[in-house]
Amino acid sequence: MRACRLTRRIAPVAVFVLALGHLAGAQVLFTDVAVAAGVGNQTFKANTSHGLGAACIDVNNDDWPDLFVVNGKGKSSYFYLNQGNGTFQLRNDLLPPLPDVEKPGVIFADYDNDGDSDLYVYTDNEKNILSGVGNPEDGPPNLLLKNQWIELGSTFPAVGQPLFQDVAVAAGVDNLATPPFPSVSGTNYIGWRDETAAWLDYDRDGWVDLLMGHWSCGNIFTLSNWDQLYRNKGDGTFEDVTVAAGLPDTSIENGLRPTIVAVAGHLDQDLWPDIYLGNASCGLGTQPPSMGDDQFLRNTGLGTFHEAIGDSPGVGDDSGTAMGIAIGDIENDGDWDLYITDIYDVGSDAPPPGNPLYVNNGNGTFQDNSAPSVGVDGETSWPANFFDADHDGDVDLFMGAYSGFTPMNRFWLNDGSGGFTDVSAACGVQNPANRAFGSALSDYDRDGDVDLFIINGVTDNMTLLRNDSVNTNHWLGIKLAATASNRSAIGALVKAKVGSVQMMRQVLGGTSAHSEDSLFLHFGLGSSTVADSVEVFWPSGQVTHLSNVAGDQYITITEGTQYFAAFGAGCKGSGTYAPSLILSGSSSVGGAFSIDIATAQGGGNVFLLLGLAQVPPLTVKSCPLHVQVPFSLFFLGFTTGTLNGQGNYHLPAGIPPGSPPVSVALQAFVVSPSLTSSTNAVTMTITP
Hints:
Layout: E1 11-12, E2 15-16, E3 30-32, H1 34-37, E4 44-45, E5 54-55, E6 67-69, E7 78-82, E8 88-90, E9 102-109, E10 118-124, E11 143-147, E12 164-166, H2 168-171, E13 194-200, E14 209-214, E15 228-232, E16 238-240, E17 259-265, E18 274-279, E19 295-299, E20 305-307, E21 322-328, E22 337-342, E23 357-358, H3 371-374, E24 381-387, E25 396-401, E26 410-414, E27 420-422, H4 424-427, E28 436-442, E29 451-456, E30 458-460, E31 462-467, E32 474-481, E33 493-498, E34 501-506, E35 521-526, E36 530-537, E37 543-550, E38 553-558, E39 564-568, E40 581-589, E41 592-599, E42 605-612, E43 626-629, E44 647-654, E45 662-671, E46 682-687
Parallel strand pairs: 1-38, 2-39, 32-38, 42-43
Antiparallel strand pairs: 3-31, 4-30, 5-6, 6-7, 7-8, 9-10, 10-11, 11-12, 13-14, 14-15, 15-16, 17-18, 18-19, 19-20, 21-22, 22-23, 24-25, 25-26, 26-27, 28-29, 29-31, 32-35, 33-34, 33-36, 36-37, 39-43, 40-45, 41-44, 41-46, 42-45
């Protein structure tokens, strides 16, 4: 256990500092705190023996991830509000009445770009037949739960009124089948059977689109297995662009494969989100050989996709019944690798059976399955997640086991070169009494490390694995505030460099199995206290550069904002420090110039913001003497000092020789209790 667990709220950032080193002797440890946290007293059951997931959504924009968990028919779904103290409060009153149908999964995004996150719940026919023969094709309508937080003035509704409103019908994403599929189970549902869905901005127009994966084992010659893509029109509605976007057609060898899991994200080197479909053979002996083969749909950047699985020989046939997908750069070599969970089946998998790991060749193609040689082939399993549990700079791997004589969850530590070590027994993830269906990541207690929710689906409780790993490594958490891109920043790519190591993370609109992680991105920094650089590649095409970013904090990076390089001591305060006094000044300067702040009675910390006149004021966290300038305009040769007693804070500065004069705006934030006195005169002078 840790000596202490600090809880930090997010602070908007102006600029930052940091570097990496590998972990020498950390102990990775997880503790199941579901009951203590208030989320462990409910039971979950998937009548189909598939599905169940969770969404780590922040519904009220307080930067504390909340939790929505779906359930099977006959069981209630649950919404938990994060209390900011390590516990959750059950708040199903914030939900509208939900239909009593099978709900395999949930994803979230700000689909209408109004500033709050909305929920999409997909549904299935509860009378699934595992053998596939005689399976129903019909399913219930899906739900789009619009968050009304912003419309209500950023407050919760009156008692008895829901925060969410189902607008799926009006938005055109209730996913009805026209005409309805015939019912063989007596359910007479009017929609498709959905087992997976994902948000993506496939055309990068600033609005998230919606992918739906359908499945109906045993009905391989019908449209009930045809996946769909809906384009967001930007007016609160969607249009079906499945055919226009070039998704797999309706031939048996292409588009009519039962899809159990899908992920939409970057799989190659461009910024156009691709799609990977995990399909199911359904255990039938009469299906075409490729029925259970997966599909990789590469985004052309022209509003269409093309099948690219053939570019990677041997890839896609290793998971005869894909269940979950994790994306990560396991070697920190600048490309994305795939881990896919599967039913351990010698009959439907290309040998050897088990979960495949596809390592990227660096050009958007993948090597054949390397999981056995790496030691992560596992057993029959559903959820999977890549994340840096020990802050050493590389992503580790969680696998949630489903079946077997004693199903055991697995956790493998990355050795930094793409090799893994099984530490499952020692780190606390094994749970033989439960069978994992879905999982989602978030730092729910905001202490700087990533925690794990696991939804167990055979009349089991939920597991909340709090990360209690003991190490001295550092970390950086990033929240992206999009302005031109879709407001959830889904599809954004972030790179953080520490020394010679460059790490990558991307914002996904659906993760693991039937779930979605928190949208905050997490980087382990090893022994370094700073990241040398952070780059954000936004879906809009804009790029944000930051240098020297201080670790052990959460920061917000806003699209389109000019950031600054930071100098002086690192900023590691626990909140935004309100200044006692703000001074402003401007001057046209060229060559060398200086800034002087004089005080009559003195004392206090000084924050200086120096930039072009059009740069808006920025909020700065408390730290002893923090000087910030646009690194593209000025030399980095600043002196530092303190403002003690009657004295003068002198800052020499300059622009490159030969540059024309520029207009400079300066704001000085002086923090000192003594400055509340009107007798303490403080002046600021800019001297060209």
